[in-house]
Design a protein that fits this description.
Shape: globular
Structural class: alpha/beta
CATH class: Alpha Beta
Helix content: 40-55%
CATH superfamily: Aldolase class I
Order of helices and strands: HEHEHEHEHHEHEHHHEEHHHH
Strand order of the largest sheet: 6-5-4-3-2-1-7-8
Largest sheet: 8 strands, mixed
Length: 340
């Protein structure tokens, strides 16, 4: 995975530090649409919905001025369904490389032209969903031909040399045996990979949760192989830290992870322009401080370990070390200095 340039690294780190002590979110996810081209078996968003009222680029600019996040996600639904998605991405940008912007997509509507346009608008990273290393992905997402599209498109985009594509695999009972196969495919395509955990809170369906002792033993084996693969990979294709991988396994082993800081360290801005603690708690606010004061201290939910939480629900110094210093350019500069 590429490192962010040094000056931009300093700006992101500085903004996140300011937000930490100011009790503002480090990262914000803008769900710019609830409509989707897929109808995934593990998700509560799917198909077209009425969007008579939806967040505008001006709304996005207003929230950016209020919250000043160091990192953001543009997500949905499928954000590429919006005709003005380029303007939505531009609306998040500030002078000097802030924020670090992740564009979350199933890539069914992605093309090389749209990829380059989104990069030009400010997208730093493309998080592309992948559930299986083959056509089973189509059935799980109820979108025929999707895997073939990814198989043709993603290696072509990777060959452009920007190193900004990260597959995101939500681990479920359906695919837990194949996480290393997916990691291997990421290497074949020349892209990166991040793993997160299925949450039954999203759908109310426990059947996709890994719970059986034999399943957990196989998942442990898969994670041990992932950790070994990560340690031997000079390209850093697996972007989860080792502790995040371990904590993801523990989420399944324990049946949950307590101590969620949704609303404080991260939050969602919904397609209709409200603040939510996360995408699975539907209490709506118009003031982040009120959200952090009313919701976060009493939040006892332990039902997810989704990507944004797994990267941000850590102590300040652990967060800095794992998700900033190692991801941005400081480590690269230090290694070059040692080599010299």
């Amino acid at each position: 995975m590429k490192r962010t340039p040094f000056v931009e690294s300093c700006l992101v780190i500085g903004q996140c530090a300011v937000n930490w002590f100011a009790r503002r979110p480090l990262a914000v996810s803008f769900e710019v649409t609830n409509s989707c081209t897929c109808n995934c078996r593990h998700c509560d968003h799917g198909g077209p919905v009425d969007e008579a009222e939806r967040i505008t680029p001006d709304d996005i600019r207003r929230w950016m001025k209020v919250l000043h996040p160091g990192g953001i996600q543009i997500s949905g639904g499928e954000p590429l369904l919006r005709d003005d998605i380029i303007e939505c991405v531009r609306a998040t940008q500030r002078v000097g490389g802030l924020p670090y912007t992740v564009f979350v997509t199933n890539a069914s509507l992605l093309s090389e032209e749209k990829y380059l346009a989104l990069r030009d608008a400010g997208a730093d990273q493309f998080s592309v969903s992948l559930d299986f290393p083959d056509e089973r992905h189509d059935d799980f997402r109820r979108h025929p031909g999707l895997f073939a599209h990814l198989d043709a498109l993603l290696p072509r985009l990777a060959a452009l040399g920007h190193d900004d594509i990260v597959l995101n695999t939500a681990i479920t009972r359906e695919n837990y045996k194949h996480v290393n196969d997916i990691a291997e495919l990421a290497g074949k395509w020349g892209v990166n990979i991040s793993f997160s955990a299925y949450s039954p809170r999203r759908t109310g369906d426990m059947s996709y949760m890994v719970t059986d002792p034999l399943e957990l033993a196989e998942l442990r084996r898969q994670f041990d192989l992932l950790l070994e693969r990560k340690g031997n990979d000079p390209h850093g294709r697996i972007v989860n830290s080792c502790t995040t991988l371990e904590e993801t396994y523990e989420y399944f082993e324990n049946g949950g992870t307590p101590g969620c800081t949704a609303g404080l360290r991260f939050l969602v801005i919904t397609a209709d322009g409200y603040l939510q603690p996360c995408s699975m708690h539907f209490r709506k606010y118009l003031d982040q401080r009120k959200l952090a004061e009313e919701f976060t201290p009493g939040n006892e939910c332990d039902e997810c370990y989704v990507a944004i939480r797994s990267y941000l629900d850590k102590g300040f110094w652990q967060l800095l070390r794992e998700n900033v210093v190692d991801h941005f350019s400081f480590r690269l500069r230090r290694d070059r200095a040692r080599a010299g």
